[in-house]
């Protein structure tokens, strides 16, 4: 961005290369720990095929919002996927089959996260209320 009075509020460093081709393209601010004061990070991922994104339960020291939306720009209800997510230490399993937002409070175990069936692309938004994303526990994903 040009050196202007408000140019500091913009970044173009938000497209992240991802070696995991199963996930699809990622637009992210997760690697920009101090951007905007370091209060928020966002991953935007287009999911076009089934895969297990997170294999192990984990938790964070910050709240997180997980959004599962239609990737059809003409119809937000055009959702044809089945996503499995488990919450809590007891791994309570939930099945998502329509556009859904999930609030994950700080300290709540969540995962695995499995995109079990993807007949139409899904826009997955992962919003962490922190600039420095980290997991508590040993999780490889």
Structure, briefly:
This protein is an all-beta fold and 141 residues long.
Shape: globular
Question: How do the strands line up in the largest sheet?
Answer: 1-2-3-10-5-8
Q: What's the tally of helices?
A: 0
Low-confidence regions: none
The CATH class name reads: Mainly Beta
Mean pLDDT: 88
What can you see in these coordinates?
This protein has strands at 15-16, 26-28, 41-47, 51-54, 64-70, 81-87, 92-96, 100-104, 110-118, 122-128. The mean pLDDT is 88. The protein has one domain (21-128): Jelly Rolls, CATH 2.60.120. The protein is 0% helix and 40% strand. With 141 residues, it is mainly β. It has no helices and 10 strands. The strands form 2 sheets. Strands 1-2-3-10-5-8 form a 6-stranded antiparallel beta sheet, with no helix packed on it. β6 and β7 form a beta hairpin.
Keywords:
mainly beta, Jelly Rolls, 10 strands
List the helices and strands and how they pair.
Elements: E1 15-16, E2 26-28, E3 41-47, E4 51-54, E5 64-70, E6 81-87, E7 92-96, E8 100-104, E9 110-118, E10 122-128
Antiparallel strand pairs: 1-2, 2-3, 3-10, 4-9, 5-8, 5-10, 6-7, 6-9
């Amino acid at each position: 961005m040009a050196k202007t009075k408000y140019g500091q509020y913009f970044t173009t460093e938000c497209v992240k290369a991802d070696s995991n081709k199963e996930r699809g393209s990622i637009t992210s601010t997760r690697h920009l720990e101090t951007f905007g004061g370091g209060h928020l990070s966002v991953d935007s991922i287009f999911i076009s095929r089934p895969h297990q994104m997170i294999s192990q339960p984990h938790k964070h020291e910050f709240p997180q919002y997980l959004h599962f939306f239609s990737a059809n720009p003409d119809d937000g209800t055009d959702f044809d996927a089945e996503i499995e997510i488990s919450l809590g230490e007891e791994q309570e399993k939930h099945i998502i089959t329509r556009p859904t937002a999930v609030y994950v409070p700080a300290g709540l175990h969540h995962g695995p996260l499995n995109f079990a069936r993807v007949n139409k692309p899904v826009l997955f938004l992962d919003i962490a209320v922190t600039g420095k994303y980290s997991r508590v526990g040993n999780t490889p994903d």
